């Protein structure tokens, strides 16, 4: 795009991908083709392997069957402490690798975002993550490569503000009302500012969708 060239985005849909994927295949691909090893690989193996399932009909249970295909889905319990320990170990490994290759790692500049539905986020309690000697608190949204990501991976107005400004000015609009903006208090007014217009916001409250300007 910087060279005035277009980019292509192709989204391929796999039939029942989450139900048919072979555990051994995905682990082999991650290890031998993508180079995922050590703690990261063991973490993935612990999630996929040695799972069993059974049928419950009025408290009458079938025999356990090995689950060799598909990705487990559904709700999970709060394993915040063990999850946090694994996360911090992974960050430490990445940090060590970067420093060993003479790349400067700014601990205090790290941003930490926990992503999930409002219901999922209520099940965990992570106040901070240790990065080097710095404690990083989770935020509601982060900006990366020009795009904003929030903790619900919603389609925020922030990601569309440039397109919105073009539409408003092309139509010489005096007033525009927008719902479902997904704006929250931690997003500064300057981020959604449009020259020549006054922004009146009603941000969404915690754990709720919506918001409007």
Automatic annotation (TrEMBL):
Classification via InterPro entries: DNA/RNA_pol_sf, Endo/exonu/phosph_ase_sf
Domain of life (superkingdom): Eukaryota
Name the UniProt record assigns to this protein: Uncharacterized protein
């Amino acid at each position: 795009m910087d060279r005035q060239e277009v980019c292509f985005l192709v989204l391929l849909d796999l039939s029942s991908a989450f139900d048919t994927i072979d555990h051994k295949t995905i682990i082999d691909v991650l290890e031998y083709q993508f180079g995922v090893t050590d703690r990261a690989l063991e973490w993935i193996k612990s999630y996929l392997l040695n799972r069993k399932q059974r049928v419950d009909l009025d408290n009458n249970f079938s025999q356990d069957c090995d689950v060799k295909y598909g990705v487990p889905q559904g709700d999970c319990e709060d394993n915040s402490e063990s999850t946090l320990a694994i996360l911090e170990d992974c960050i430490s490994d990445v940090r060590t690798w970067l420093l060993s290759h003479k790349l400067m790692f700014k601990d205090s500049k790290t941003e930490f975002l926990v992503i999930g539905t409002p219901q999922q986020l209520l099940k965990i309690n992570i106040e901070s993550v240790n990065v080097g000697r710095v404690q990083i608190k989770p935020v509601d949204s982060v900006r990366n490569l020009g795009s904003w990501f929030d903790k619900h991976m919603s389609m925020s107005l922030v990601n569309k503000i440039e397109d919105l400004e073009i539409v408003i000015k092309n139509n010489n609009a005096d007033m525009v009302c927008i719902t479902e903006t997904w704006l929250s208090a931690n997003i500064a007014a300057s981020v959604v500012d449009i020259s020549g217009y006054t922004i009146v916001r009603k941000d969404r409250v915690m754990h709720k969708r919506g918001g409007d300007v």
